[in-house]
Amino acid sequence: MSMKKIIIANWKMNPQILDEALRLAKGLLARSLPKNAEIVIAPPFVYLELLKKNCGKEIKLAGQNISFAERGAFTGEISGLMLKNLGCDYVIVGHSERRYKMGETDEMINLKIKEALKSRLTPILAVGEREKDDDIIQILTKQIRGALGGVEASEMSRLIIAYEPVWAISRPSADIASALSQTASQCPDTPDHALSAALLIKKIIGNLYGADWATNLPVLYGGSVSEENASDFISQNGISGALVGAASLELEKFVKIIKAAEINE
Ligand code: PGA
Fold first, then answer.
1. CB of 127 within 8 A of CB of 98?
2. Fold of 5-263
């Protein structure tokens, strides 16, 4: 079955100035974006409003994070409703940088998934093992069961899961150029391994919610996706797109990744 591919730009804590964020988004819009792929930018919160005004309907927006609470005394947090009201359709939940640098637990991620669904945002749940030789079955099962506790099967049609092995994500770098050169030079993961992880994720969802939900669940791959390797990952039948970090900050490279999605639709 052919599914619309989803390509998400995870800008992380970049770029440092608003003009550059606008230049990237407008540059993307100036290209003929494929109709058969969903293009999403997850910028830092502070750029969301201006990007919404400038991105039209062609580019969708995602939050990079969401509060586990609905409203109130949570200094520094952003609620699901705020994201929705700013024009987001998606939110990344449980990115490994939030799990391991900001101490997010499966319990917090579970609350965030529920807040996202309540706010009518599509959660992009990020899961993945830290080390290459970690027990992937045990880790993905724990992360997925932990994130989805109490989530009804009827909400499964609004969930996306991104498989992001931490050992394959391009390392944080003082400057974008060196992160990019690392991304381009080599992705430590292989399309075959990514596919087997995606199928494992579907199996876990199948065990929890039934085979139909598992079949229809979009599973994305993330971890050093570049313009050189995007097609190899995205062309896999069980992989519905990519979550792209470093390479999404370079217009020409990101455009090539999007084109790979178009070809592989
Ligand atoms: P990367 O990041 O493409 O720079 O490896 C992906 C991610 O962390 O979402």
1. no
2. TIM Barrel (3.20.20)
